[in-house]
């Protein structure tokens, strides 16, 4: 067994575990300044690297790596922060974690196949971030700025991409993807916002943006090549999009845009032959409500609502349906 290269400057506790006689050419660099910081590094495999920097007091860093050419990097500044990085069976995968503030928690876990990438950044107080990936070629990116924000990213499969940016306080985001080639992105700015994005099957795309306070967004896609986009600017808006089944050519589209306060929009598209379904809702002003549900094929529904206090409900089942609703829209 070749000797691991260890470079460490610390005030606190540090534990290095080589793992077993299979560890070769692994490198570890650790720098700790402050009081009562703890770092535990375990590496088993070949040509892997780990870098850790902790500044402050009572911070904890735990790294467990098994594989070939895997790399972790962690940096914490503040007090009582915790980072856990776990890579098992990965080849050429990387995990990067950065925390600035106090009492933040970040967990990164990658399993199975090669070329997974995960990056997490938290700035503030009492933020929680979990990033879990299994499969090949998946990429997860997360950034949280503020206090008491929570984000969870879970990906299984191949070549999936997920990203989230949360700025403000008390925001929550959950992103789940499975299968192949899915993309989910979420941007939140404000306080007390909730967002949930879930995608399975192949080639789906979901993009969500929330600016304001107390907004709620849910996007669920289970077909192929579905597209869902939701934008909420204001407060207390609710948007729900579900595209539950697509064909081999899955061409479902759903778009929601809401400006103002207390808007509510929901869209559901379903059916064994969903080619041609399209749903679009645009609500400007306050206190609008719109419902659209399409089951079958080649449906299209559009809703525009302006002024105040509008209500709209559209239901279509069958083939070749078209519906358009305008209410005092400029």
UniProtKB/TrEMBL annotation:
Residues 221-248 are annotated as: Disordered. One of its GO terms (cellular component) is pilus. It comes from the Bacteria. Keywords: Signal. One of its GO terms (biological process) is cell adhesion. Coiled coil: none annotated. Residues 1-23 form the signal peptide. The keyword Signal applies. Belongs to the CsgA/CsgB family. This is Curlin associated repeat-containing protein. The lineage of its organism: Bacteria, Pseudomonadati, Bacteroidota, Cytophagia, Cytophagales.
């Amino acid at each position: 067994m070749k000797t691991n290269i260890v470079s460490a400057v610390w005030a606190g506790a540090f534990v290095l575990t080589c793992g077993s006689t299979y560890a070769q050419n692994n490198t570890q660099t650790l720098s700790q300044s402050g009081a009562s910081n703890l770092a535990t590094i375990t590496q088993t495999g070949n040509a892997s690297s780990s870098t850790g920097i902790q500044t402050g007091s009572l911070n904890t860093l735990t790294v467990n790596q098994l594989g070939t050419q895997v790399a972790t990097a962690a940096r914490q500044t503040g007090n009582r922060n915790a980072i856990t990085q776990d890579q098992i069976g990965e080849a050429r995968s990387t995990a990067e974690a950065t925390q600035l503030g106090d009492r933040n928690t970040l967990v990164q876990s990658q399993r199975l196949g090669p070329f997974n990438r995960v990056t997490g950044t938290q700035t503030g107080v009492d933020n929680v971030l979990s990033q879990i990936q299994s499969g090949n070629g998946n990429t997860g990116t997360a950034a949280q700025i503020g206090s008491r924000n929570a984000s969870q990213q879970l990906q299984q499969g191949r070549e999936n991409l997920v990203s989230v940016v949360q700025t403000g306080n008390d925001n929550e985001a959950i992103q789940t993807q499975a299968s192949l080639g899915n993309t989910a992105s979420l941007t939140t700015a404000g306080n007390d916002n909730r967002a949930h994005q879930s995608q399975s099957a192949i080639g789906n795309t979901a993009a969500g943006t929330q600016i304001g306070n107390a907004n709620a967004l849910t996007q669920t896609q289970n077909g192929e090549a579905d597209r869902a986009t939701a934008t909420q600017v204001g407060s207390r808006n609710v948007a729900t999009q579900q595209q539950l089944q697509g064909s081999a050519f899955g061409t479902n589209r759903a778009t929601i845009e809401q400006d103002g306060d207390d808007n509510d929009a929901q869209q559901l598209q379903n059916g064994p032959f969903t080619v041609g379904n399209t749903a679009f809702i645009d609500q400007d002003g306050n206190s609008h409500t719109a419902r659209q549900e399409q089951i079958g094929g080649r449906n299209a529904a559009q809703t525009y609502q302006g002024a105040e206090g509008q209500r709209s409900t559209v239901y279509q089942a069958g083939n070749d349906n078209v519906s358009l609703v305008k209410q005092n829209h400029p």
